[in-house]
Amino acid sequence: MTLMELRELSDLDTHLGNRPAQLRAAQRKGVKVVGFFPGNYVPEEIIYASGALPICLARGGSPEPVDAALTEVPDVICPFVRAQVGERLLKTNPYYGMIDMLVAPITCQHLKKAGEIWEYHGDKEIFKLGVPHQNDAEFSLEYYADRLRVMKDRLEALTGNEITDEKLGEAITLYNRIRGLLREVSLLRRAAPPPISSLEFVKLNHASFYADPVFFADVLDSVYHELQGEKAVTKAEAPRLLLLGPNVADGDYKVLGLVAAAGGEIVAEELCEGIRYYWHDIENEGDLRRSLARGYLIDRLPCAFIRRSAKKRLDFALKLVQDFDVSGIIWYEILQCEVYNAESYFFAQRMREHNVPMLILESDYGTADVGQLRTRIEAFIEQIRKAGDND
């Protein structure tokens, strides 16, 4: 039996198919739907504690929304951000049109523009969440905590509900459960071979963007216990790879598929919507708002726009190489992502010093690069195989 044959995942697929209708039904009863852009700096716990339903807007991988956005932004904006603009314009994705409020974190300059474009159209309530670009100073924590306070006030005004400590604590407990289960499933992939493929795991993680969190946590629990006795999905000799980079959008599965087809196995994803999201829990004691601020800004592995953060991610990546028995690294970035593009040189140099081969890939969500990507991935995996044969 494969993972996708599990009854729980069939139930999850049915749930996701019905989710837009469920959300519209909830809205007719007065419940608000709050969307937010990804990057791990928007606490879902605050949204959920307000009585609203959080939806992460992170669709990507298709060229049509990217091209549609060129009526609003220039092509120097990265394809992922253009997709967030294009999905809104095309109105083919129900989630982008149904939200009552958008929380747009001010992280990289590209994602900042997506929030501004949505704001220009004026038909959605927009809250731009300021995120400090330094996370090792007390004033940064104070600023971010204050912005979360303002976010809380805006959500209370939107929903008409008070966000009490009791509700916030319950939300933290729920999302800690989800993060903990994703972490446990991820750790199962240390096995050789892993019981779940990278594509399956990433899609499971992406389902959390839309699913009811209580339902999703129960599904994850069942999947985790099923996988503990599941036979491997790949051959034991498949080269074990670590995926690094900014993000893999919901729908951007091209590289994952090409790696699998070439005989490689990605066993961990150090990305914004990967390990950075689920590796650490939020402390659920004391001042909960400050716990959220510290958990999201300081305790988590920082994104590349945070100053002096590259060394932290490098050290963590090297630890993953050891813990997951990784033979090579694939660095996957989106065209025009200048922050990660610059950082890729630093990582490549350091990985060479540690004798870890690294392949840098870049995509614009188009289809013209498939052949080139396939050739480079196949050559990289063959290189790793030959190096293993010579050991």
Secondary-structure topology with pairs:
Layout: H1 7-28, E1 33-36, H2 44-49, E2 53-56, H3 63-68, H4 79-90, H5 94-98, E3 101-106, H6 109-121, E4 125-130, H7 138-159, H8 165-188, H9 198-207, H10 213-227, E5 240-244, H11 254-261, E6 265-270, H12 275-278, H13 288-299, H14 310-323, E7 328-334, H15 338-353, E8 358-363, H16 370-390
Helix pairs in contact: 1-10, 4-6, 7-13, 8-10, 11-16
Alpha-carbon Rg, integer: 20 Å
CATH fold-level assignment of the domain at 24-164: Rossmann fold
Nearest-integer average pLDDT: 94
Please trace the helix and strand order, writing H or E for each element. Answer: HEHEHHHEHEHHHHEHEHHHEHEH
Number of helices: 16
For this structure, what is the CATH class of the domain at 24-164? Alpha Beta
Question: How does the overall form come out from the CA principal axes?
Answer: globular
Q: What separation lies between the terminal Cα atoms?
A: 35 Å
State the secondary-structure class. alpha/beta
Helix amount: 40-55%
Q: What is the strand content?
A: 5-15%
How many individual β-strands? 8
What is the makeup of the main sheet? 4 strands, parallel
Strand order of the largest sheet: 2-1-3-4
Give start-end ranges of low-pLDDT stretches.
none
